[in-house]
Each structure stands twice: as structure tokens, then as C-alpha cells.
Specification:
There is one protein chain. The protein is an all-alpha fold. The protein has one domain. It contains four helices and no strands. Helix 2 packs antiparallel against helix 3 and helix 2 runs parallel beside helix 4. The longest helix has 31 residues. The mean pLDDT is 95. The protein binds fe (ii) ion (2 copies). One fe (ii) ion binds next to helix 2 and helix 4.
Length: 103
């Protein structure tokens, strides 16, 4: 988002998607292991959202491979990430964090 505001979105999109590739594997599996370990009651809904994000990411990656660092991919990536931050990280992950604090 910072790169976009500086007009450097197209330059950094490959790097952003490479980071997201790593994030979807390591971060999601760490969260899912914790949920399983502590019998988190909302594990299924949470995992469904992770799955949705992986699919959105794969789609962005495919488009980057097909079109290169095009403006429309930068815009779509931004939209996916802002949505993810607001709907998942600020709500669903926060809820999980509060649950784990009591463990
Ligand atoms: Fe998370
Ligand atoms: Fe999560």
C-alpha cells in the first residue's frame, strides 16, 4: 500500500506476492496448528477463510505470470489485502488471539 501511494506499485508487486506466498504457508499453518491444539470452536470457519485467501492469492499469482506487473493486478492485490486486513486480521484473528490468551 505504501508502494502504491508512492506510485511504485508495479515495481513491488512481484515482491509483495512472493511475501504473500510465504505468508499463506507459514502463518496460516501456524495458526491452524494452534487452533487444533487448543480445540478452538471456530476452527472450521477460520480455516475456510484461510482457504479463500489462498485461492485469491493463487489467482493474483497466475495473473502476474500471465500479464506481468500490470496496473490492474496491483489494484486487485490492494483490494484483496485491504479486505483481508479488515475482515480477517482485525476480526477473526483478533478473536482467536483473545481465545488463546486465556490458554
Ligand atoms: Fe493471521
Ligand atoms: Fe487467520
Amino acid at each position: 500500500m505504501e508502494a502504491c501511494s508512492q506510485g511504485k506499485g508495479r515495481e513491488t508487486i512481484s515482491q509483495t506476492l512472493a511475501f504473500l506466498g510465504e505468508y499463506t504457508v507459514s502463518h496460516f499453518s501456524a495458526e491452524e496448528k494452534l487452533m487444533a491444539k487448543h480445540n478452538y470452536p471456530e476452527i472450521e470457519q477460520h480455516k475456510e477463510q484461510h482457504k479463500w485467501f489462498v485461492e485469491a492469492f493463487m489467482d493474483l499469482k497466475k495473473q502476474l505470470e500471465e500479464y506481468g506487473p500490470a496496473g490492474h493486478i496491483v489494484i486487485k492485490t490492494n483490494r484483496v489485502l485491504v479486505g483481508w486486513l479488515n475482515s480477517h486480521i482485525r476480526n477473526i484473528d483478533k478473536k482467536l488471539g483473545l481465545f488463546l490468551q486465556d490458554k
